[in-house]
Amino acid sequence: MTTVVIWCRVVDHFGDAGVCWRLAKSLAAALAQDNSLNADVVLAIDRPEVLRQLVPELSTTLHPPSLDGVRVVDWAFPATHIDVMISTFGCRLPDRVLESMGEQRPPPIWINLEHLTPQSWTGSCHTLASPNRTNGLDEIFFFPGFDPSTGGLLREPDLLEARDRFHSDPLERDRFLAVLGVEEADRKLPAVLVFGYPDAPVDALIETLANGPPILLLLPSDTAPTIRQGNLRIHAFGWVAQQDFDRLLWSCMAAFVRGEDSLVRAHWAAIPFIWQPYRQLDQSHREQLEAWLDRWQPFLPEAAAAAQASLAHAWDRGEPSNLSSAWSNWLAHRPELSRGATDWARQLAAGPSLIQSLSAFLRDRLESRSTLSHRLRHSRLDSR
After folding, report:
1. 16 in active site
2. How far apart are CA 376 and CA 349, in angstroms?
3. Is residue 53 classed exposed, middle or buried when 0-12, 13-18 and 19+ CB atoms within 10 A define those classes?
4. Among this protein's residues, is 302 annotated catalytic?
5. Minimal CA–CA distance to 19: which of 85, 114, 93, 141?
6. pLDDT interval class at 90 (50, 70, 90)
């Protein structure tokens, strides 16, 4: 049995839990294809109640049987005799775990899965190792990313085919929006998803959309389910299960997304979208935004790229005075933005996904570890 433990600390919002759940179940599926591994994938999370909002079928007891090939446990999980440790986003593992890792022979493979960043430096740091000060073990830094030199993006093997099947059936969108509670007349309107952080200028966007062509705004919120304002139909709804978020994006002509998980899903949806990075007090998130906008350049004409940047800046900085004109200009370039989004998604899909990269890396390291274990065992026998 090969035991893989993924450690997740939820800082705030839902991105940490969302990414870790996608990672765990996709890695479990990938490793299950290798019968020699007999892999047991465990997700240890410090706030399981957050994950439960994204995965409603998750057992409240956090005990076996597994769900989608993953055992979900709490932070007190007694991690001993583990083959692979994956600490996500630089989270510090419990001291007892760090100490037990140093006592194992052979030691576990230790991966630190970093946050996704569009900045170009990640490729030079991908799979580099650094000795940990607590136990002396090598901590291998694994970077998801947009370049072939990184680990790639999270993507299930059948995701793009599922997206194309959704679009090929004209009734799929109508059925999904009906389940979401959208009224029949409103389901015929082009839709925009707005999924931003609390400081996003949503009110200013609503005012802008209300004075434009008829449109349906899908808004994750606890407010009243349907609001009519000018030409705008606002449908507010509670959290959808993670597996339905893709269908939500596929139902839209455009989206505003945030953080890491919804950013990746918007790329695979291949629709025009605006990204709101997680805000940092030192404003370093704006470097992330500029790096992401730079990555659009090869896929867009100059005027469309300028429209994308203008709306992204107005949204990030909460500039109501600039939002209206930026949206109008962005909407005028939507055909070019749509083609660019499709081309970018196609280029990303041509390379390996994060799971393909990570599982291949782990198989190679596990094989080397097995060889080392064999040598250590025979060395001990020979010394008797």
Report:
1. yes
2. 42
3. middle
4. no
5. 114
6. confident
